[in-house]
TrEMBL record:
This is L-asparaginase. Residues 1-32 form the signal peptide. It comes from Cohnella abietis. PANTHER family: 60 KDA LYSOPHOSPHOLIPASE (PTHR11707:SF28), L-ASPARAGINASE (PTHR11707). The active site is at T70 (o-isoaspartyl threonine intermediate). GO terms for molecular function: asparaginase activity. Belongs to the asparaginase 1 family. PROSITE patterns: ASN_GLN_ASE_3 (PS51732).
Length: 472
């Protein structure tokens, strides 16, 4: 008995010690090399398997991943005329898909309920899981449809566009009217999204949005009206294509499609390599007449690692905002992205020295898209944001963020089809003049690379000692 007592006592002591030793050894292996890529255990989702009948069918296999939104909304008081009064995310996606007629014409369809609420109810950590769920589903299925609310649909779609690893079609859809009201757009949008996913027409495009028979790139699209069913629009560039019953026409492709099949088609943002805890706080500060610096100051105090400024004209911000931006850079190493509140227009890159090293040109991304790209860029960088990290992030904005098209010359001596086959096109940043990433209205008309990014128009031209002075 005495021996047994000692044996049990030793087990109680030794087992925890051995366990701690194993954990410490594992941690040492993982963190021994700062440059080593950490592989994070993937979450497993209850994605339904393709059935034998579906495998034997000639139809494409499409999965619809439901997250709720207006498309799954139920009209208040069971009144089919309540277009604006409804409970978003009420009906299960399986029920909605089952109600669609003639699916036998377009695809064999399965469903997965990821969530059931409005789009604004999802956190960035939720979108991390959604992206992994989409990729898991596309290991089996030919295409995926993700249903969401329209309020932040463009942000959800762009997050998927930047993070989903599969080249297969990913179609995001929703509706402006709930499922059970008269004149609802929900069933038609869902049906056409399934049709598009099954067609394979957007393979290698990344994620696209499809509502109102219109196909648009996730990077470029924005919600332009609070109520109309044709709310989504692509400023400057226009739609990718349209769906008219059995006809799907694609008239242009996103720049990344040029790299179809190439190793650099995928973005660097592989969520399998980082935990959710790496996703940082990134906010948006809006500029207006005599805008104060309180928003930037508050965001930094709240722990923001990055801030997107939505500026006037060609990205200008007020002198008070500029002062707080300089302080945030010097004291907290916060990264900033310059965008415009005008709705369209390109922000060009500036210098890389001093405060400019922390200021990134947002190209023609709107503020909400730029925030998604900045958030992911910081997440895939060192926590300290070194000079090398900042250079890398600017490069990501200039390539994956800009999506400029450049077609190399074919190999000399080849003609016709052989010459076309020899071309290895790539989407790269074109040469642009080095101008201030936060210019004033005067700079818009006559760019000057010598202007300090923290100077206002008044300060750079004729200093005016006014306490109320603001940038344009």
């Amino acid at each position: 008995m005495k021996y047994d007592f000692k044996h049990k006592f030793l087990k109680k002591i030794l087992i925890p010690i051995v366990a701690i030793s194993v954990l410490c050894s594992t941690a040492a292996l993982v963190f021994a090399n700062d440059d080593a890529q950490v592989v994070v255990a993937k979450a497993a989702f209850a994605i339904p398997d393709i059935t034998p009948e579906q495998q034997a069918s000639a139809l494409p296999n499409v999965i619809v991943i439901g997250t709720g939104g207006t498309l799954a909304g139920k009209a208040s008081n069971n009144d089919p005329t309540n277009f604006q009064s409804y409970a978003a995310g009420t009906y299960p996606i399986a029920d909605l898909v089952n109600q669609l007629p003639r699916k036998d014409k377009i695809a064999d369809v399965s469903t997965f309920q990821f969530g059931n609420k409005g789009s604004t109810g999802y956190s960035m950590a939720d979108l991390y899981d959604l992206s992994l769920a989409v990729d898991q589903a596309l290991e089996q299925y030919d295409g995926a449809v993700v249903t969401t609310g329209t309020d932040t649909m463009e942000e959800i779609a762009y997050f998927l566009d930047l993070t989903v690893r599969s080249e297969k079609p990913v179609i995001v859809t929703g509706s402006m009217r709930p499922w059970d009201v008269i004149g609802t757009d929900a069933p038609a949008n869902l049906y056409n999204a399934i049709k598009l996913a099954g067609s394979g027409k957007t393979k290698w495009f990344g994620t696209v949005i499809m509502l109102n028979d219109t196909i648009q790139a996730a990077r470029e699209v924005t919600k332009a009206n609070a109520h109309r069913t044709d709310t989504f629009d692509t400023p400057m560039l226009g739609a990718l294509g349209y769906i008219d019953q059995a006809n799907i026409r694609i008239y242009r492709a996103p720049a990344r499609a040029i790299k179809a099949g190439a190793s650099d088609w995928s973005t660097p943002f592989d969520l399998n390599t980082i935990p959710k805890s790496k996703l940082p706080i990134v906010d948006i500060a809006f500029s207006y007449q005599e805008a104060g610096g309180g928003a930037i100051k508050g965001f930094v105090a709240d722990g923001a690692k990055g801030i997107v400024t939505s500026g006037t004209g060609a990205g200008g911000i007020s002198s008070k905002m500029s002062a707080e931006r300089s302080k945030a850079i010097s004291e907290n190493n916060v990264l900033f992205v310059t965008t415009t509140r005008t709705g369209s227009g390109t922000m060009y890159p500036g210098g890389n020295s001093g405060a400019s090293a922390n200021i990134i040109a947002g190209d023609n991304l709107n503020a909400q898209h730029a925030r998604i790209l900045l958030l992911l860029s910081i997440a895939f960088s060192n926590d300290t944001l070194t000079a090398s990290d900042k250079t890398q992030i600017k490069s990501w904005f200039a390539t994956f963020g800009t999506q400029d098209v450049s077609i190399p010359e074919p190999v000399v001596g080849l003609t016709g089809l052989d010459a076309a086959k020899s071309i290895e096109p790539e989407a790269t940043e074109s040469a642009t003049p080095s101008i201030d990433p936060n210019p004033s209205e005067v700079v818009t008309e006559s760019p000057s690379p010598s202007i300090d990014p923290d100077q206002s128009k008044e300060e750079s031209e004729t200093p005016v000692p006014s306490a109320g002075q603001v940038n344009p």
